[in-house]
Amino acid sequence: MTLKKINAWLHLWLGLASGLIVFIVSITGCIYVFEKEIRSLYQPWQFVQPQEKSFLLPTQLIAHAKPELGKLKPTSINYGQKNEAATVNSLNRKKGTSLVIYMNPYTAEIIHIDRKSKRSNVDFFRFILNGHRTLWMGKTGSKVIGVGVLIFVCLLISGIVLWWPKKWIKSIKDQSFKIKWSGSFKRVNYDLHKVAGFYVFLVLLLISLTGLVYSYKWYSKSLYWVTSGGKSLEAKPRPLSDTTTNAVFQPKNIDKIYSKLATTSQAAGMFITLPAKSSDAIGFIVYLKAGTFYKADRYAFDQYTMKQFAGNSPLLGKYEDASIPDKIRRMNYDLHVGSVMGLPTKIIAFLASLISASLPITGFLVWYGKKFKKKKGKKPLVQEKMVLKKKISPWELKKVRTAAMQEPVI
Fold first, then answer.
1. Who has greater pLDDT, 402 or 35?
2. Which residues cross the membrane (predicted)?
3. pTM for the whole structure
């Protein structure tokens, strides 16, 4: 068996084995690309009338949210842009519950309250995200997806090998780069699988490789090793506050840090992680570009002394001070979801994911058509009948036959 036949055999059977997984991951990813934009259409409480004044301080928002929080402790605060609501959040990962209080950042007026638990969590996009991450099967599903994405990377590479033209002549290039919409259903389906797959090859490869970072630690470390030129991705110890000090945590410390960061940076948003334990640090993420997560300054402070922890890892420190490998690692999520350059790359990610969802379907139909096609006797070309009737010349008939021989067998 030749190398080409082995490649085709692998492409076929790996595709049949992983087709359903690829379809679910692709279609859910396609839907989730515009999650924020779609939510904004039916969640008006996300927005406020922008004003030419500063936002209220974190402790002021917490104070106004106290009646709704009750006995719950706030775990984080999120500030958006001037026309976006701020949120005071309380998340309990063990119980699977969350409380999000949407507030006007200028007046602390409560706009909306969103309570969720494991039983009441029927949010559409949460359902889609669970399918994308776990196939709605929990930890077992996440492992299945990891294997499925690895197989999909192999399918992309074997597919581009199968696509590669034997000769770079016009007739063959036309078959490789153009979809023959005027052809039969089988021909159009074949072209949709082959040609459309080629055009999204690089985008799907990038989405798949960035997705594998969340599935396998060994892959994540290997990718960092490659992008950094041989440096190891070491797990940095979590910043911890000094509990041996005699100082007492002062909530006003959060206001002081917030005010300093808000005035010294061009923030497009800010996310504050509040200490839940006596040893926890106060975390600040200052977003420098709206709609993305990678371009951000990340800080951690001792909750008692307000001492800033030094940052020399992908998840801590100023963006401009980060090394190229660390910037690439911070960019991983935005590359995966297509938000790295805003709306244009989101559209590209959406279309690529949509085509990706179609590849298992078109591929199955190609295989089914070959496997179960009916054998029919060879029918004379219509043009041959026309020669007999002297409506076209033998020379024109030869051209028709040559073109027919170059048609792909599907």
1. 35
2. 12-34, 144-164, 196-216, 347-369
3. 0.86
